[in-house]
Amino acid sequence: MVCQVAAVSVGIVQGVPLLDLDAPEDQSAEVDMNVVATADQNLIEVQGTAERATFSREMHDRLLDLAMAGIDELCAAQTEALADVLGEVESLRGKPRRKAPPKDEASVWGRPE
């Protein structure tokens, strides 16, 4: 499986859902969640903790939606930053790899002394 992946943190700080918590926000967050997903919105990992207060299923869903929006932004930035390289990879797909001649063990490991 080859796919584009991104990860973000989200949380609730002073009752407000936030994307990409900085260190002070992370330390004071009531809820902290990490989300890893693919560009096509398939989840890889969701890990959330009620650090200082419990949170509702509705807030969980809001945080997850916020995280997925952030992942969309990151994937778009990745695609833009890697456009030239990705184009080169696509042009090489399907082409046979060059085969190097087999090496004997002595040439790989050296001759015993």
Structure notes:
This protein has 113 residues and is α+β, with helices and mostly antiparallel strands. The chain has a single domain, classed as Ribosomal Protein S5, domain 2. 41% of the residues lie in helices and 26% in strands. The protein has 4 helices and 4 strands, in the order E-E-H-E-E-H-H-H. The termini are far apart. The mean pLDDT is 89.
The CATH C-level name is Alpha Beta
Coarse structural class? alpha+beta
**CATH homology superfamily name:** GHMP Kinase, N-terminal domain
Question: How confident is the prediction overall: mean pLDDT?
Answer: 89
Identify the strand order in the major beta sheet. Answer: 2-1-3-4
| Outline | elongated
Helix-residue proportion: 40-55%
Kindly report how far apart the N and C termini lie.
Answer: 45 Å
Q: How many helix segments?
A: 4
Ranges with pLDDT <50 over ≥5 residues?
A: none
Strand content: 25-35%
| Fold-level CATH name | Ribosomal Protein S5, domain 2
Radius of gyration: 22 Å
Tell me which CATH architecture applies here: 2-Layer Sandwich
Number of distinct beta strands: 4
The count of domains is 1
* Helix-strand sequence: EEHEEHHH
What features would you highlight for this structure?
4 helices, Ribosomal Protein S5, domain 2, 4 strands, 4-stranded antiparallel sheet, elongated, alpha+beta, 113 residues, 41% helix
